[in-house]
Amino acid sequence: MAGVWLSEIYGKEIITNGGRKLGKVEDLILDFENGSVSSLLLVNADELIRSENTARQLAKNSVKYQRVRNLDNTIIVSEELPPR
Predict the structure, then answer these.
(1) Cβ neighbours for 41, distance < 8 A, ≥ 6 positions apart
(2) Alpha helix ranges (H) inside 1-84
(3) Are 34 and 43 within 8 A, CB to CB?
């Protein structure tokens, strides 16, 4: 999925390939070493940092970018992570 500006991802709705709505992209986690998006956040990153249990909230409110199957007007993600 090359050629997408990060600013174009914000606010897009995320839906599973089974049709379940997960929410909208509020923030991103970037992998600067690889130059890629690591995760899409359903909440603002500041909310996660201030939460009581950051790791649990991160798991609950993020979608690994490797699950993305299609990125257009909406973002379609697989139900589960693909096997490595």
Answers:
(1) 25, 26, 27, 28, 29, 48, 61, 62
(2) 6-9, 45-50, 54-60
(3) no
Query: Which pair of tokens denotes residue 76?
Result: 């379609």
Contact 78, 17 (CB under 8 A): yes
> 23-40 burial, b for 16+ CB within 10 Å, e for fewer?
ebbbbbeeeeeeeebebb
* Domain ranges within the chain, ordered by starting residue: 27-84
Predicted model pTM = 0.85
Residue 12 has pLDDT above 70, yes or no: yes
Task: List beta partners, residue 31.
Answer: 36
By percentage, how much of the chain surpasses pLDDT 70?
92
